[in-house]
Fold this protein.
Amino acid sequence: QVQLVESGGGLVQPGGSLRLSCAASGSIFRINAMGWYRQAPGKQRELVAAITSGGSPNYADSVKGRFTISRDNGKNTVYLQMNKLKPEDTAVYYCNADVLRYYRTSYEGYWGQGTQVTVSS
């Protein structure tokens, strides 16, 4: 099996910063894209940022210039540095990874359990 464990969420004032981490573990042969999604109360889950195995990032317009996604392939870990946080960034943030497991022939998507980010004064 594969597990994704997120950390780094919390309460921060507007304008502040947080860094989220997500470590993948288990029967992993290779990871393709990794990404961060978020879901606010009453809203659909949305893509925040994603990064290919080669390190090419992609961002939602709402976070461009404020958030930075990165990854450490040797540690199967993806990060999200969030700066200049706004109240509208408040949500549960989920990690996602496309994983090729040993003895499998296709990639499968896995999700973390989510970490709460609250931006409030």
About this structure: The CA atoms of residues 21 and 53 lie 16 Å apart.
